[in-house]
Amino acid sequence: FVVIVATGQSVSFYCTIHSMKSIFESSEKRLHIMNYDGKPSTPDRKQTCRRMTVHRITFCAMVGALYVGLTLLFAPISFGPIQFRAAEALSLLPFLIPETSLALFVGCLISNIFGGFGIHDIVLGSLATLIAAKITAAMPNVWLAALSPVVVNAAIVGGYLSFITEIPMPLSMLFIAASQTVSCVCLGIPLTIYIKRTGILNKIIK
After folding, report:
1. Closest CA to 164 of 80, 59, 70, 49
2. What integer pLDDT is reported at residue 12 of this predicted model?
3. Which of 83, 122, 138, 184 sits at 20 to 30 Å (Cα–Cα) from 101?
4. pLDDT in tens, 174-193
5. How many alpha carbons lie under 13 Å from residue 41 in its C-beta half-sphere?
């Protein structure tokens, strides 16, 4: 079942990335400024920076929304001490785009409001995502980038879930580490390598 869900999330994420690429490319064509002689004008530095900022903000908003959507779509297996949160595959995006750290934080915070595990999950869970994302953004390669969400979430999320559910802490941490390994290593690394090699994001946030 986990393999089926993981495969579905991979396809969903690929389609989302390609859709965002098409949206931004069509937006570029519509917003292209023409000179009086009908020739395309060359945007100045301010225009380029403003476009880049808008593109990145829009992309980050989409990442946050996608995180929430994937988490709630599979809500029965997205929460609790034994979970599989496919949206955590997105947690490697800060390795490519550091600004997505905040998007993941907000996405996790909103998702955990609906999780049913109270304020601990809302505050500490989203904080764990933010810490892991910041560390991921600073990693030198994708393999180490995938390690930080596993370790940070196992320590923080596994810790407070042990307190809430009264499961022994080592066992709770082990469950969360296993879940994060599937999401970040088995799903996240292939997605990140694919995105990096194809250069899809260059078109979206250039």
Report:
1. 80
2. 52
3. 83
4. 999 999 999 999 999 999 99
5. 12
